[in-house]
Each structure stands twice: as C-alpha cells, then as structure tokens.
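Hello,

Our lab assistant flagged a job as stuck in the queue for most of the afternoon. It eventually completed. Since we weren't sure the result was trustworthy after the delay, we are filing this so someone can double-check. Below is the sequence as submitted and the structure that was eventually returned. Let us know if re-running is recommended.
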Amino acid sequence: MGAKTAITPTRLDDYAEWYQQVVKQGDLAENSSVRGCMIIKPWGYGLWENMQQTVDNMLKKTGHKNAYFPIFIPLSLMSKEAEHVEGFATECAVVTHHRLEKGEGNKLHPAGPLEEPLIVRPTSEMIINEAFARWVKSYRDLPLLINQWANVVRWEMRTRLFLRTAEFLWQEGHTVHATAEEAVAETEQMLNIYEDFLENWLAMPVVKGRKSESERFPGADDTYTVETLMQDGKALQAGTSHFLGQNFAKAAGIRFQDKDGEEKYAWTTSWAVTTRLIGGMIMMHGDDDGLVLPPKIAPAHIVLLPILKGKEDDDKILEFCQTIKENLSKINYHGRSILVELDDRDINGKKWDWVRKGIPLRVEIGAKEVAEGKVSLQKRTSSPKEREELSLSDLEAQVVDILDGIQNSLYEKALTHQKEHTQVINNKDDFYAFFSKSSEGITQGGFVKAYWNGCPEVEKKIKDDLAVTIRCLPLDEQEGIADKVCALTGEPAKNLALFAKAY
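-- returned structure --
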C-alpha cells in the first residue's frame, strides 16, 4: 500500500476482479494455504466484531441467550433428518481418522480410523436439537431461545473471499416453542431484526419475503429471507429465518408435557447471518477507489493524518493530534465511542491507504492547522479532493451529525439504485429479453417483479435458461392476485415473485 494506485478494472467492466482488488487493497482478508479458506485480517475482523456486537445486543434484548455446541456431528445423528442431510450432502467435510502417525520417509499419514465418521458442521440443527431433546421436558421449559456464534464448513467448489468460502463465521439461532403460532412469530421477529440490522447499520436496503418451496432451507416448512441488490445487478441473500415446523423435533425427539399433561412434539426455528454480509457491504457501497464503510459499523470512524516534515513543528502537530483524539474519543456514537486512528507514519500517499480502507472521515493536520486551531476534513463519500475546514470545537460538536449524514447518504444511494433497477414485467418475451440482453459485454441485471403460477417446472426452466431464480415472494405484495396471470405462462397467478440472478 502507499501512494494512490487505481482499483482496476472499474466495477462493471470486470466486477469480480474489482471486488478482489477492493478486498486486497482494503486489507480485509487473503486466501489461506487451504483451498477455499480465508484469513480475515484485523481491519476485516474489526468489521465482523462490530457486526457481531450489534446483532448480539439485538438478540439479547429479545430474550435469546448464547451457548456453544461441538463442531463435530456424528454421521448417525445427521442421518436422522433425511431431507436436511440431502440438502447439505455434497458440501459436507467428513473426518474419518482420529490421529496421525509417521510412515515411510518419516512422512505423516492418517491412522486410527474412527468407529463412526464425524461431519464438520455445515449447520447445527441436529447436534443442537439432540441437546434440546434432553433439556425440554415440560411447557415450563418453553420457549427455549438459544444462539451460537461459531464457524461452519461447507466444501464449496467455487469460492470468493467473504461471499462463498469453505469455512465461514456466522451466528445461528435455534429455538423451541409450544405452538406453531409461537414458532412462526419467532421466525418473523428474527426476519425483522435482520431487516433492522441491514438497513439501519449496514445501510443496505432489503426486500423481505418467503422463499419458494424449491429454495427453502432443507427440512424447513417455510423459509423467510432478506434479499439485497448489488451494484452489478445481482441479488445477494443477506439473511434467512426458518420455520422448521415439527420436522426436526420429531427427528430428534423434542417432546414436552403441556398444561393438560399431554405429551406433544415441539415446534422449532433456526436463523442465521454470516460473514458474507461483509462481501455484500463491499459490493453495495464500494467505488473505484475501494471500500466505502457505513460509519455505524466501521472499525474506526476517523483517521488523523499529521503532515510531518521533520521540523520542530512536528512535536506541536502530534500534540494537537493527541488532543483531538482524546476529545473525540469521549463522544458516544450509537453505543460506541468515536474510534480515532492516528497515522503518523512517514510514507508517501498514506491518505490513499485510508481511502481504500473506506474509513468515513480523514483529517489532515499541519503546522497551519495547529496555528489556527483548525482541521481539514475529508469525507470518504465525497471527492478525494473535496475538503472543509472546521475549528476543533466545531468538529467535536458536529462529528456525530457528520457521521450520520454519511450513513444516511449511503442508504439513500443504495435504495435509489435498487428502485432504479427494479422492473415489473408482465410477459415472457420481455422477461427473457431483460435477462438476456447485454451492453458492452455486461449482462443485464436487477430485480424483476412478475406474477408466477407457483409451478416448480416454470421456476426450473428459467433457472436453466437464464440462470435466474426466484429470490423471494415479497411479504407485502401478495394481495390482489386473484385476477392476475403468470407472466411466464399466461395461467392464473399464485404469487408475485421477485426474480434475479444471484450470488
């Protein structure tokens, strides 16, 4: 890093390459020696820590408690829920041996086969529900509201940092309820929490909806989702919440005695968000200079950039910077202190390091600023050459409003993009034309709202023909469908669906 180097190619010329460049030059993560796995560097992990803290606070306010469960799941336990296992079978990493030993040439090789293979968790429904079956005996034990912060492994063939890796970090919630109504209410509550988090913290507008039957979580009765639209017109599933009915309760034997003394199977839910949110945030807000971070979630809010020239003024400049840092650090910003970095490195172009890392505010301070008691302020969302001068007292008084202004502008920009790239289409020819046409080699993208007859065969055909899927059935747009017809077949419509190409 150092002096300015362009993030190339530009976003829509080669979006995948642009994305990789932003991750690299933003110092977020890198590939590890294990194919498909990543090393999350401090700046990237700082983002995840802030996300984790925010979501964790939301969960605890709604009565959920954290626990931890084993990473290894016996194959026999996974096999109790056939539909669930089938959905993850091709992605499972399997442990078959329990130790290493030296062989010919002093080389290590596996030895000591396990009595039963162990699955490295792709998700934890079965191992957690086995425990729930022991914990739940009476209606008095319900509801049981548990969350786990953990890593999971899904042996993906095609990987991309944060978006799809063989190992990733997440939270997974698992709850048990006495009635279907309570479980559905929990599923919907979690969907609303995810919406709140994405829109108000990550500045990412979402569409809430149900998944079609073919897109549901394996073994679930119903899956709810929050879908987001990236700058290249592809959708990203940002979080899911699953109503599992009694399927997993019956497989694991989660039963309870109700108030009348009758034994019944419980109703369960599960829900999760992952480190792919970092990837989504990059693609939604980034530009050709690199990362652009929403202030509420940024690892630091402000960087102080002293202009040092090896003269006697340097000590005064650094002392002034320390005063600014101490004063700003006392200010509360949405539950956290204002976080200030002081970069006193003697290198050329250090400003561009911070531009590429997406820090919301940069403050340059030289001898002139010290003499006048002022600072030169630059926003990441403005042109790199655009700046304003503020007195130290004005900076302290206005910094929260300035950061909120950046946060709100990012959300509004993303919302405008989503609206401008959402179309309503009412016939098959226009539908196929929209997703087939290209401009300068760029395939058309965006959300399409269209009526659908509910037929899985129609859904499969557009997936095969266009690589387009039903992202969700928007929750607030399913009224007044009785007289509508399917855009793809002309038959009576069952739902309004949201279609897109997706990550």
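-- support follow-up --
The delay was a queue issue, not a problem with the job. The result is valid. The first helix runs from residue 15 to 25. The chain has a mean pLDDT of 93.
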